[in-house]
Every structure is written in C-alpha cells, then in structure tokens.
C-alpha cells in the first residue's frame, strides 16, 4: 500500500479525468487516446494521484486495469467533481454554448421509435453535444448504467435497484398480434385459454417487454408454448407476418403492421400490459447539466 501523505491534497481535475478514463476503458493506452494525451503523461498523472491519495486505485489483471476497493469508492465522487466542473465551465457561457459528450444505453423500442427524434432535437438545440448510443435489452441497459459503462439509459418497464434513479418519459402498451391468416383470427369467440394452444415467438428473457408480458400472463394462464425467443424485433415480426405464430410486442413496433393489415391485434380486458419508458441514471451521480438538458428536450418531444 502506498504511504499516506500528511500534506494537503493537491490533486487536479486532470488527474481525476485520467483516473475516470482509465476506469472506463480499463486501459492506460485507451484512456490516453480518449483524453488526447501521451501514454507516459497518462501514467504519470495516475501515479501522482495515487501518491497524493496514499492509495492504489488500480490493479493489473490480464493486461486490464481493474479498480481496487479504493478505486471503486473514489469513482462516483470523481465523476461528481468532473460533472460539477463541467457545469461551472458551461455556466459561464450562454446556453447555446452547452457542449460535451453523453453515452446513453437505450432499449430497443425507444431506440427505434423515439430516440432518433430526440437526437435531431438535440442537434438543433445543442449542436456541440455529442451523443453515443448503445442498444440493449432493459436488463443490460440497467447493468451498463450501474457499472459506469454509460452516463444514463432509457428502459422499458421499471427498475427496482435502489442504486438507480429514474424519471418517467412516456407510456406505451404491449399488443398481442398475429398475421391475418392465423387460425385464431377467424374464431368467433376468443378466450385466454386459446392462447395456451398457440405457438409463440417472443422477446428474450431479461427484456423489458418479456418481463411485462410474463407478469401480465401470470395467474391467467398456464405454461405457454414458446417456440422461439429472439432479441431482434424485426426477426420476430417477419416470422409472425409469414407464419402461424403469436407474439406480444410494443404497440410502437406493430403499429404499421396493424395499419396496413399485415397484423391483427387480439385484445383481452383481463390483461394489463401498460408500461413506462423511463430515463435512468446512477442515484449517486447527482446533478448533470447535459443529462438534464437532454431529458428536458425528450419531454418536450413527446408532448408535441
């Protein structure tokens, strides 16, 4: 362990930025590229920070830089200091000067139907803000935010992790659909029991859609015949439109197919499949000006 210094702290924002970049990339060389520094300058900044704090913040594992317990403790606090510094800097200029980078993990439905208009609005309002997006199911989005891989996320359904803060964006609902040629379409009186006999193609376990579907079905039906599970909505729709399958997907994903007759919707009053689409971020992160501005634009977009 490094010897703790009794001298006053003299760490710099640059050192904290280096620490944060190494924590994010798990690599000194990648952090150097991200910060436009030489590798030697990056290594020196980290060494100086560890010496001044009197703690080892990383350990090397298979050529990767892994946070020690002290590094894990420091990371959220360093990110807050860096975020505060950004707000101080941007606060000295007019609002149109807001700039920076945000990494956002987005689940499939908002990524396909809502996120593009948010990016367009952000490009018009804050052209100097850069948004990096990754698409994943809800469980993976929550993990990416919690594990510092992304600044914040957009999920379907809810998150019960107390380490995650969330804010409702808008609401959607799930629809049970089939092709117009499905045998159940012509049945005079359709009941929930008929669904047990059908072949289903569904989203994969861990997705927000699947969690809401399973919860809605619980207590109403026995075991369904789940023929296939996929994480790609386009694949599911293609199978349903050309085969004898049922599926349950967000209305936003099936709206065009319902409008042009490729799909038929089955409605059951007993099933509640409303779901929220929400922004999430680490509760410990505190205020973040860029995140707040992007969420503000998002709320305006859905209210148009």
Automatic annotation (TrEMBL):
Superkingdom, natural source: Bacteria
Pfam families, A to Z: HTH_1, LysR_substrate
Keyword flag Acetylation: no
Organism: Paraferrimonas sedimenticola
Signal peptide extent: none
SUPFAM superfamilies: Periplasmic binding protein-like II (SSF53850), Winged helix' DNA-binding domain (SSF46785)
Domain HTH lysR-type: 11-68
Gene3D superfamilies named among the record's database cross-references: Periplasmic binding protein-like II (3.40.190.10), Winged helix-like DNA-binding domain superfamily/Winged helix DNA-binding domain (1.10.10.10)
InterPro entries on file: LysR_HTH_N, LysR_subst-bd, WH-like_DNA-bd_sf, WH_DNA-bd_sf
Name assigned to this protein: LysR family transcriptional regulator
GO MF annotations in UniProt: DNA-binding transcription factor activity; transcription cis-regulatory region binding
Alphabetic keyword roster: DNA-binding, Transcription, Transcription regulation
Family of this protein: Belongs to the LysR transcriptional regulatory family.
């Amino acid at each position: 362990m490094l010897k703790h210094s009794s001298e006053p702290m003299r760490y710099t924002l640059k050192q904290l930025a280096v620490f944060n970049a190494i924590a994010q990339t798990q690599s000194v060389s990648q952090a150097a590229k991200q910060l436009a520094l030489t590798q030697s300058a990056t290594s020196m900044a980290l060494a100086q920070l560890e010496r001044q704090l009197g703690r080892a913040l990383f350990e090397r594992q298979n050529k990767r830089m892994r946070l020690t317990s002290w590094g894990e403790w420091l990371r959220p606090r360093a990110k807050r200091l860096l975020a505060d510094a950004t707000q101080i800097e941007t606060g000295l200029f007019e609002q149109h000067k807001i700039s920076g980078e945000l990494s956002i993990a987005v689940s499939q439905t908002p990524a396909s139907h809502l996120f593009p208009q948010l990016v367009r609005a952000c490009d018009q309002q804050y052209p100097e803000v850069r948004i990096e997006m990754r698409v994943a199911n809800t469980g993976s989005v929550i993990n990416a935010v919690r594990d510092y891989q992304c600044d914040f996320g957009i999920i379907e359904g809810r998150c019960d992790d107390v380490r995650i803060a969330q804010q409702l964006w808008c609401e959607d609902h799930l629809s049970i659909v089939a092709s117009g040629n499905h045998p159940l379409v012509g049945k005079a009186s359709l009941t929930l029991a008929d669904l047990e006999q059908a072949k289903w193609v569904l989203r994969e376990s861990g997705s927000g859609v699947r969690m809401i579907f399973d919860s809605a079905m619980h207590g109403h039906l026995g075991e369904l015949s789940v023929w296939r599970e996929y994480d790609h909505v386009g694949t599911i729709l293609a199978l349903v439109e050309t085969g004898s399958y049922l599926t349950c997907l967000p209305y936003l994903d099936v709206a065009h197919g319902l409008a042009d007759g490729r799909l038929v919707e089955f409605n059951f009053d007993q099933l509640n499949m409303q779901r929220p689409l929400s922004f999430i971020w680490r509760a410990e992160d505190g205020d973040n000006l860029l995140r707040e501005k992007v969420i503000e634009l998002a709320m305006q977009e859905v209210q148009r």
